[in-house]
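Before the break, one more example. Copy the sequence into your notebook; we will annotate it together after we see the structure.
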Amino acid sequence: MRGIMVLVMAVILTVSLSGCTSTGAEIWEGTGFTAKHIRIEMREMERQLERRDAELEARIIALELERK
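Here is what the structure looks like once it is written out:
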């Protein structure tokens, strides 16, 4: 659930910074989130995805070795 929230925040931030909405500050005002918080959360999500990728790759290799 936390990952979905971070993803939504990242999309809104990206859209707001690209000029599609008024300003990012207006969107995040009162939420307590800062760009620093979002960057930290996005880095953590990246690390989790990299770990999952490595786990999946290891499973694939193990399955291929089992087949032989």
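The helical segments are 2-17, 24-28, 35-67. The radius of gyration is 18 Å. Try to locate both features in your own notes.
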